[in-house]
Every structure is written in C-alpha cells, then in structure tokens.
Structure prediction request, 1358 residues.
Amino acid sequence: MEPSPHTAQSNPPVAATTSNLTEKDLIRRSASTVPPPARQLEPVAKLIDVSKCIGCKACQSACIEWNDTQPAIETNVGVYENPHDLTPEMFTLMRFNEWDNPQTGNLEWLIRKDGCMHCADPGCLKACPAPGAIVQYSNGIVDFVHENCIGCGYCIKGCPFNIPRISKVDHTAYKCTLCSDRVAVGQGPACAKACPTHSISFGTKEDMKALADSRIKDLKSRGYENAGLYDPPGVGGTHVMYVLHHNDQPEIYSGLPKNPRISPVVNAWKGMTKYLGFAAMGLAAAAGVLHSTLVGPNRVTREDEDEAEKLVKESV
Amino acid sequence: MPVKDIEEGDAIEPGPPVVVDRYTGGARINHWVTAICLILLALSGLALFHPWLFFLSGLFGGGQNTRAIHPWIGVVLFFSFAGLFIRFWRANLPAQVDKDWLTHADDLLAGREERMPEVGKYNAGQKAIFWSMATLIIVLIFSGFVIWDQYFADWTTIPQKRVAVLVHSLAAVVIICVWIIHVYAAIWVRGTIPAMTHGSVTGGWAWRHHRLWLKELAERHRFKKPEAPAE
Amino acid sequence: MTNSWTDIRNTDLVVIMGGNAAEAHPCGFKWVTEAKANRGARLIVIDPRFTRSASVSDFYAPIRQGTDIAFLLGLINYCMQNDKVQWPYVKSFTNATYVVKDGFAYQDGLFTGYDESKRDYDRSTWEYDIGPDGFAVVDETLQNPRCVWNMLKSHVASYTPEMVERICGTPREKFLKVAQMISECSVPTKTMTSMYALGWTQHSKGSQNIRAMAMLQLILGNIGVRGGGMNALRGHSNIQGLTDVGLMSNLLPGYLNIPVEKETDFTTYMSSRTFKPLRPDQTSYWQNYKKFFVSFQKAMWGSAATAENDFAYQYLPKLDVPAYDVLRIFEMMYRGQVNGYVCQGFNPLLAFPNRKKITESLSKLKWLVTIDPLDTETSRFWENHGEYNDVNSATIQTEVIQLPSTCFAEDNGSLTNSGRWLQWHWAGGTPPGEAKRDNWIMAQIFRRLRALYEKEGGPFPDPILNLTWNYQNPDEPTADELAKEINGYAVETLYDPADPTKVLLEKGKQVVNFSVLRDDGTTASGCWIYSGCYNEAGNNMARRDNTDPDDTGAYLNWTFAWPLNRRILYNRASADLQGNPWDPSRKLIAWDGSKWSGYDVPDIAPTAKPDVVGPFIMNQEGTARLFARGLMRDGPFPVHYEPFEAPIANVIAPKIRGNPVARIFQDDVAQFATSEEFPYAATSYRLTEHFHYWTKHNRVNAVLQPEFFVEISEQLAAEKGITPGSWVRVWSKRGEVKAKAVVTKRIKPLMCDGKKVHVVGIPLHWGFMGQARKGWGPNSLTPFVGDANIETPEYKAFLVNIESTTPPATV
Prediction:
C-alpha cells in the first residue's frame, strides 16, 4: 500500500501505482452495510488556510482541468464569483465577501474556497437511498459513485454545507471527490497542487492539524485573536478544514455555517420515520390479518337478501 | 334523506335476485387507474424510502427510472383522483348518522353489524378513507413538487425541501396505511369487490351495509329497466 | 529584480506599491506568503484599490494613482527627519557625500536648464563638482550644504505627512503607520523588499517612481542584501529577456546602445563610453564596453567584422531620434509614414493607448504581418464586430497576413524571469495545424530577403549578405544553436596575455563567461550579460538542482542567472566596510582577508579590498546614486508631477501639467481632458484569472472571469444611480466602452487637496476575439503619452466619465 502523501507540494511517486482506495476500504456505503475494513488507512485532510488565499482561482482551474468538466461561460453579475455557484461542472468555487471589521474599522476581503468538506459523519451519505452511490473510505474521503446514483437529490438535502449538485445531463450528483483518484495513487488533490501560495495543503489529518496550529499562532501574532481551525464537531469533524482569522464568526466567510450538523429534519426523515413508517404499515396489515382471524368475514346473509327483495317488491 | 347520497348510475335491478348498481363503468375505470397509480407510487416510493426495499426499483428499470417516473405517476394519480373526487365528494359529505355509526364502530369490528345504525351509500369509515386519501394526495403532490428537483429545484430552499421530504414520506406512510385499511375492508366485507369489478352488489349486501342508500333508491324508484321505468 | 523571487522569503517587510503581486504574479507571490509564514514578515500594500494583495496584507493604505512619488519622497523625508537611516551604508555605499556642481538648482517643480519649447533640459549642471584630481569632490562630514545628502534633504522637506495626504489622499495616520513600519528597516538586521510592477512603470514619470523607492531602499541600507532590493515584477514570463537581448529600437543585446546619427564612426561612438571611474580605485565595469560590443559584432557578422572595418560598425543603423518606441511608430503610422508592420507576438490594437488612433494607424498601412499563436484583435482590426469593433471594412485597404506560430509549450528555449533566471524549457506538445515555430518563420523571411539582396544588390546589402548564419538547418535554427551563439565562443584560439604560450581556450570552444571576452575580435558573444548560460559545461539554463545550502534561497545550481549566475545584484553591499555581513544571520558573501566568498557569486572582483572598492561596480562612482546626475531626462531627484489627466492641479507646482519632459505628440495634447469634463480618476489593471489578451482564448480562463467589467465605489454608484451587475458606459476624451458594473467596498473615494476623488478601475482582459464574452479594454480610453525616459504609456492614470447605459447590441 502506498503511504498517504504528506503534502501536495512534495514530489509524488512517478512510477505506476495501484490504487489504495478499494471496496475493502469502505467504512460506509449508502443504503447498505459494509463489513468493517481489515485495515485502517491513514486519515487524510485538506487544509485551506484562508489567511493565505489570494483568490486566484487556480484551484478552480485545476479542478476543471483534472476532472475534465465543462462549466458554462457565464456573465458578470457584479461580483468576482464565476461560475456564480457550485455546479455539476464546477466542484469548487472561490467565494468573496467584503467585510467591514467593526473592531478595527478596516475592510477585509474574505475569500473562501468552497467545496465538499468530506464530513466524518456525511449527511449526503446518510440521506442517499441508492445502495453504493455514496461511499466513505477509511481515510475519510466521501465519494460519489455515479453508476449507482439515481439522481434523486436527497444528498443535497442531507448536506449541511449545500455542496452536491445534480447534473441536468446525466442526472447524477457531483461534488469534490478530494481527488480520490489522485490520492489513491499517492498524489495530492489537483487544487492543492495548483495553489500558488500553499493556501491549500494536503496530508494526514494529524499533520494538517499541526500545520494549522502553526498558522493560527502566526495569525494571533498579527492581531487575529480569534484565529482558529474550522473542523466542526457537529459533523464529526471534516477532512477539509479551514484556518480562519475569525473562527468565532465563520458565517462572515460567505455563509460558512457556525455549527454545521445534519439537519434534525433529515435525521427524523432517515431515522424515526423509517421505523415508524414500517411499524405503522406493518401494524395496519397485521391488524387486518388478526381481525380476519378473530372475527372472520362479514358475510351477507340469506335474511339480508330476503329483506332486500322484500323492500324492492314493495317499492315496485 | 338528501339526494346527495345517490350517485350517477346508482340503481336497483329488481331481479330476482336483487342486484344494485353501485358504480358506473367510468367510475370503475377511474378507480382502477387511481388504484394502479397508487400501487405503483407505493412501490416506487418505498424503493426510495428504505434500502431494504430498493430492490423494488428493479420493477421500474432501475433507480434512475424509478426516480424519474415516480413524480409523473404522482401527477397522473393526482388528476385521476381528482376525477374520483368530483364523482364521490357529495356522497362523502358528513351526515348526522356518521357520528352514531362511529360510536358503534366497535360493534362493527366485533361482527355485530346488526347493532349499527343504517347508513347511506358510504359509512363513516369509507368517508374517512375518502377524505384521508384526498387530503394526503394534496399533501403528497405539493410536498412532491418541492422535492421534484429535476424541474423545481430552484423554487424552494434546501431547508424547505428537507421539511417537504419528511412530510412526503410521513404522508406516504399514512396513505399506505389508509390503503391497507381500504383494501382489507373491501376483502373483509364479502361481496364488496364486485362493486368495483362489475359495478354492482347484491341486494342483500346493500341491505346489510348501506340500507339507507338502498331504501332511498327504492323510494325514489331508481329501478333499472325493463322491470321498472325510471322516473 | 536586483534579487530573486526565491529571495523574497528572506525579508522582514514586503512593500507592494505600484503593483499587485498576488493578482498579477500569484506564483511569485508565494515567496511573500513564505516570508510571512516562516519569518513573521509583514506585508504593506499601498494602492488605489484594496487589491487581492491587500486582502492578505498586514496593513493597507490607499493612494491616488499617479502620486507615488509624493508618497515616497514623504517616506524619505520621514526617515531623514527621524534619523531612520542606515548611516554607515549611506555614507560609504551611496553618493550622499558627493558635492553637486554649482549652478544646479531646483525651484517650483523644475530643475536648472529647462527649455519649454523643446520640452527638455540642458542637463550640463546636473553633475558632481569635479576636483583637480579628476575625481568627484566628497564631504565625508556631510556638512557641505551642496553635498547630495543635504540637497536631497531640502528637496524632500516639503513632502510632509500633511502634504502627502493632500496630494495622495492617504489619511495622515495611515501614511505615518506605513512610514513607521518602513523606517524600522533602517537597522542593519531588518530588511524590506520593494515589489513593484506596471503600477509604477506605466506613468509619464514611471522611471522616477522606481528611482524614488530605490533611493529609499538605499537610505535604509536594503540594496544588495538578502530579503531586500528593488524587485520589478515583470509583466510577461519573458519580458526580462526581451529587454536583456535588446528588443528595443535603441538597444543592442546586453544593454549596449544602437549608435545615434551623430556617432558617425566607431571612435566617436566609443569616446562617450569610456566610463572612467569618478572615484579612485573604483571598478566602473562598463570600462569593458568595447569587449562586449566587439564580441557582439563578431557574433553578428563573423569574419566580415574586422579591426580594419571597425568590426562592421557601419553595419549598424544610426538612430535619428532617441528611439522608435511603440508610441512613435504608431504616431508615424498615423501620419502615413509607415508602409508595413510586422507584429510578432503582440496585440497593439488592444495593448496600446487610444485604440481609435491605433485603428486609424493600422488602416493606413499597406500591409500588416501578424505572427501569433492566437487569432488576435490586431489581425482582425479591419473586421466589423458591431459596437465592439465598429469599423467600415470596405474602406480599409491594409493587406493582413496572419502567420500562425507556436506557443512556448510547443518549443524548446529559455525564458528569463524577473529574477534574471534563464530557465530552459522543453517542448511539451507539437504545434497544431499550420503553426510554425518563430525561428522557422524568421529564417524563411531572412533567407528570402538575402536571396533578393544577392540577386538585386542595392545601395548597401552587406549587413544582410554577411550576417552569420551557421546553423545546421539554415531553414530552422534551433534554440540550442542560438543559445550557444548568445553565450559566445572563441573566434581564434585565446592565449593568456601574461604567458602567450599558454592556451586559455581553443578556437571554436564556448567561452566560460563574459570575463574572457576581448575587444580584438578573437571572441564572439551575442549577448554579453547572458554569457555563461551555455558554455563548455553544457546548457546551464537546463540545470534543475534545487539544493540550497543553509536555506539562503540562492539555489545556485538551478538554471542560470545573469550575470555570471549571480542571484543578488550588488551583493557586496550586504557586508560592511570590513567585509563582514551587516546581519550575520543573513550572510551572502564575506571577506576573509584575501578574497570574497559566500553563498552567492560575489558581485565584486574576488580580491577587491572591502574598504577600497565600492559595491556598485557598474557605476563610475562605485557607489549608488541618490543624485542621478544627468542620467535621467526629468531630473536627478524625483519630483511629484500629476498625470497628464489629473483630477486636481499639481499642489507642488500648479502651472506644470504632467511631467515637463514626458514625450507627447502635438495632436494628442488636444485629446487630454480636464477634470471639469471628465471628473473621475481611472486606472487600468490585470486580474489574476487572465493573462493579458491571451487567456480569453482559453475556455477555462473564460469560465473563471467571463465578462468585461469596471469597478467603482459604493459612493460613486449611489451618486450615479448605478446598480451592481448593470451596464455602464465609461468614456474619455478618446473613446468609450460599455461594461458591467462591479460595485465594491474595495474602492473608496479619496480626499485630495480638499476635493473628493472617485476612482474607476478598468481591468484589461477583453476584446472581440476568443472564448470569453466580447468586450473592450481600457485602451479605448487611455491617453497617448509616454514616460520621459523610456516612453512607457501612461495607462495607469487618466480621466473618464461614467453613466448607466443599455447593453451593447449582440453581434
């Protein structure tokens, strides 16, 4: 097995390598159960240091190139975001927010690379009804398997970050794969490789947390007292993490949720409703069987027929 | 007794034996289209409801087709049921006797139907099924539109869709239960099914279960030719 | 760049002014983030707009475009007033102590010798006082009121923080914060780097913008040291190479000069190029000028260049004007004085100012040849594209010949980056369709021309007929062959002058570097500063060893840097008068008592004693110039002049419009607007999603930034009733464009001399060809005026008006 890469910047292997992400490495598979994997892959993570990001969109460009997608050439609608949102052809997007810091009176241009967070507790996978359409590997990558996807869009409802998009062409869901095809052979994600300022790093989750610590220290030395790591526990932590200068207010970064978790509505839908539903339907059917056994059929009697004939005769 | 209890085509064939026409051909076709839609919807919907039942998607040619066809069947159902609704709503309006009937529902279940009050074309239980179906279908079609992403993804927000999908699945569970009751009642009360297959029931069946309806037909001389001229 | 991209990681303070490195040089900007992350370096951004660079800065200060000199002289004044000076450096390594000649003076925005009718100075008084020994007079005590230091002190005295605020619109406290941060770098153990680009060069006083910062860096002792320097971020991957190999009408390769018409013979030409030292024992390296010039002539004409014919000096053209720069050529074209134009890898219709004039000029040509991998707007200037290119094709008689060429990834060769690294690259693909390599195209043209001259003769065919063309395949010289020619070789066997029996280099061998070039015709070198790039050791540009002993950022075995693989110019200045590094933690080279050595190639003779020979070896003084003598056309010190189109009058000298010696053509003066007609201060710039007018041909880039827009403040949008994303019309006295409006907090109105100045930002990447949506660029609006010294057009500061409008008709 290839060791997991520690950074996207380090020189990746050049020899042909077999994929280390196999069916046997799945820890979750949508609408199905998988046996516990025999081996545990080193958990990986992408660390996006927002304080280093210059919004150059090289990540978007690399993502388009690597995944060979064809986003539309749109228009300018008065902002820097292009495409204007994540699309089935654009798995990552720089989001720009001009924020007046009320404490310093200074303008801050907060630029965040949006895309799949690869939650440890993935809402998309939880919501998915199609067996094997969404899988989670033991290294933390949450991936969509398009041949199993039925295009129902439940993953969109399950996702706390509004990430998956359904293609109008093949009616399947798309999102960032964390370049699972690259990571599987010891390479870093395309976006991390393309990032000119090392704002995007890739490696083991442990290493990325250590790197984040050093970045947070630097940011605190520059007066960002609330600098911190965004690794939200509400979804069990994520395998895409942010270093934020204002970790106390993630929502100023173009609506990054403060405490993301799978919506209670989704939990109710995918949890209680199923059991209650089966119970109710089962009970209804069982009640019928029981009733039929105990009471027996409700038959029309000879007297009923006679009464009817009598009535009819009288009326006629 | 108001006229509303008699529907188009209801008539007594004096016999003997006495046969009572209960549903016209149109009503029966309408019913079975609705029934087939409902069954298909239940099968395709259950396929997406729980992984144990995902195999049901095989009936529709796989998950993609199931996902694509389910909402369209829903649209057909909606219009089909709308037809039934127009036919049946009047006779299903609540009546004074329904209350009385409901208080004796346990007698009915226990097989002591003789203790039940006389009812018209529909008893309170049937009316409950009718109005439940009508309500649930409205709920299902609207919540269905909210989650029909292929065409209406941009019409609502994701939190709204989440509520819609929950409501849709709950409503589906309820409607399936209602359907089970409906089907069981049709089987349990022997002689009911011909009403929807041949359109008619025996005079005894009408006497036993819907005596007011039968009496009213008789009173109003709703007899089928040639035995008696219609008024 | 005096330093290299990789060296920026060694700095303590990055000042981005006159550029937007994060936006336009994102890959180079990584070294800023490295310095910040690993050294705790701070970043200051000074710009009219809150740019992408500003978004990751520690401090941002706004400034009105075209007022950088006032800001910089304000900083110099601050340092002088507050004794924030690296004194030993300034006294020993600059000309602060030199006494200026009597007669030189400055008053009301002008120096001695101005002739308004010529728009030029008589610069004879802009010189040092020369003593009886023939050397410049110095006053080590700095007491002489006419020494450079005191002259400079009085020159900058009026640029107080209040004056800076009045001119630049930078709030006083923000200016003072910047000044305080910068002045901390006057201690020997702290360095600042200046990263600038076209935000400084594209002004009518662009050269002086850069000089002002260079002077500040000298005062802070930041030139020649690790993490310091004047770092020009070049606008193309190989624009450094363009100037290095002399692709200018007045230059020969290696910054040698094309003769002017007064220099009728070689002796006259050389007489003004002796470069005698102005102080005792100084290097004055340009004393070797003749060696480089003769070696160039030998590379060009081989055996036809002989001592007897002054090494074919007469083969060179003689300039009748200072330069045939782009503005002059188009002015001549406009006047019908140009028949044909060969446009290789250039898109002047969009890239030059005043597009209307460019269109009319091109329409007057008999023929136009474009050599380009892309279908450029220039190639299609005659084609009607509705509002986007509203020409009447029927009236244009210019014959256009498009020669499709390859792009860099389809060819071997080298690119010279901003840090002077010659980086070899290998073809990564085969040319598509009919595309041909530039070398092939040029060879075909040359060979056909030579055949014509052979057949038909003419008044002086010799330079063409005798041109050296010793390539294996004369139809397509290879990049390796050209690189070897540039490096140079021994024309004859070279013997040691001290021992004539000792062979230094066999005839035909590659010279090791320019130190062995000779002025007797025994060596040839196509571009002396590049010599060493491809010697007997092989292609040094292709080296890819990224070892870096002690992490200095030098990477001496990675490619080849000119000159002599030196990574930091003037690196002798990183050590004090005893030869010890100013900052031991940032050692570059040191004197061990007998010679210089260290991490970089010493920029001094290895045995030059540290207390004798000055570090600025290219200067006759051996020191750096705070006072530039007569070497700049517009003054030995920078002066604040407003742009030719400015929202306010010049506060320093209200009567002077623009730079008094900037080159303007009379017809264009009538097209300069006043702030009454055109109230808003516009500037043009790049976006990171695109590269010039190239990448709009690429689908991915077009996706990332699809459509032309202009940026305005929320205040201006409110005043003009402009909503975000709506269409606006922006017009100047020379033309108009339609664009989408981006309304932003990142641009804020500035208060300048009591007047509210609105800034309109105009990015430059759209045209009527390619994948992106059709649009315009700023150059439909920009004025036709060039810098006083190097004629770079004033793209960065001009006046416009703006209003809401309807979408352009779709074509």
Notes: The beta strands of chain B are 11-13, 19-21, 200-202. Chains B and C do not touch (no CB pair under 8 Å). The first helix of chain B runs from residue 25 to 49. Residues 71 and 91 of chain B are 30 Å apart (CA to CA).
